[in-house]
Specification:
This protein has three helices and two strands. The longest helix is centred in the first third of the chain and has 20 residues. The model has no long low-confidence stretch (mean pLDDT 87).
Length: 111
């Protein structure tokens, strides 16, 4: 059940991990199919992987722009799956930390 082109399951994954990954993938697909998005006026930070997992058929920034007006795009290392694992997770963490620091300073009352 390994998908070489999509690299959904790492080569080093044992059978139990492979099953968990596929179950999560199936739940994510079902959630995507069932989700109905509403307009949102708040800030949205979109963390987009620099590497494609599979050939791109979608434009996430453009799609989110249909329902959100304040989108901040952050490019992070890795692909959709590897951006949350070493060594790429440090780039994601740095991007999130930067946004949190910006939010915490902008929330402080002015003197």
């Amino acid at each position: 059940i390994r998908s070489a082109s999509a690299k959904l399951i790492p080569d080093e994954a044992d059978e139990a991990m492979a099953v968990r990954i596929m179950e999560m993938f199936e739940r994510n697909v079902q959630a995507t199919v069932n989700y109905r998005c509403a307009d949102y006026a708040g800030r949205v930070d979109l963390y987009q992987a620099e590497e494609l997992l599979v050939p791109s058929r979608r434009q996430p920034f453009a799609e989110w722009s249909n329902v959100c007006t304040h989108i901040h795009l952050h490019h992070v290392p890795g692909n959709h799956l590897t951006m949350v694992h070493d060594p790429h997770v440090q780039g994601l963490a740095a991007a999130i930390s930067s946004v949190l620091a910006e939010c915490s300073t902008s929330d402080k009352p002015s003197a």
